[in-house]
Amino acid sequence: MTATRRTRQGDLVLEAVMHRDDHPTAPMLLAELRGRDPGFSSATLYRHLDRLVRAGRLRTVEHDGERRYDPNTGLHAHAQCVTCGRLSDIPMPAVMTQAHGLSEVDTIEVTVRGRCNACT
Q1: How far apart are the first and last CA of the chain?
Q2: SS in 3 state form for the chain?
Q3: The whole model's pTM is what?
């Protein structure tokens, strides 16, 4: 992993993703960042998101045709509310991270769908 120079804008992007647990899209993040800095550009956001993903600080999740950003880079699954669309992390038990026939597990892609507590 190559070290990258830290910038104020990069720190703002990382902070915006890290304090959320809803796996935000870039447009969601851009709206939040422009609330703090109206001049924050989409090109700057996408550049920093790409750097953070390549550096292993974030991972991407494809969800309903959208790319979402996840600060939880450990092995886990997702729960999706079919009513409001909320996407939450589900910790995986150790037995699930020990796949038969694989010496190491890179990713787990499981999404459980239902209704969240707020929507029932």
Answers
A1: 44
A2: CCCCCCCHHHHHHHHHHHCCCCCCEHHHHHHHHHHHCCCCCHHHHHHHHHHHHHCCCCEEEEECCEEEEECCCCCEEEEEECCCCCEEEEECCHHHHCCCCCCCCCCCCCEEEECCHHHC
A3: 0.81
pLDDT, average across residues 13-37: 94
Q: Are 14 and 52 in contact (CB under 8 A)?
A: yes
At 42, list the tokens. 């989409």
Closest CA to 38 of 46, 48, 28, 30: 30
By CB neighbour count within 10 A (0-12 exposed, 13-18 middle, 19+ buried), where does 62 fall? exposed
The mean predicted confidence, pLDDT, of the chain is 88
Whichever domain contains 98, its CATH number is 3.30.1490
Cα 36 to the chain's mean position, in Å? 21
> Which residue has 């899209």 as its token pair?
25
Based on the fold, state whether residues 38 and 90 are members of the same structural domain.
no
